[in-house]
Amino acid sequence: MENLQFIDPLLHGIKPLENNTKNLSVKQLACAGFGSLLVGAVLKKTGHTKTAAIVGSLALPLLSAAVYKKIANK
């Protein structure tokens, strides 16, 4: 059986994703971060704890990307 770990994705036409956060503003990233916190809290209140944990865990990377982008643009 083949060892699929060594297949080169570029041979099959799979291209790596480009950094798409350059198209988003700092305000959009911050709103997405706070929105994920809010949605995670609502989901937890309604009893969807696993989904709330996943959605809530997106807040920190989004907010840190917003802060990094704000500092990098100075």
From TrEMBL:
It comes from the Bacteria. This is PrgI family protein. It comes from Flavobacterium ginsengiterrae.
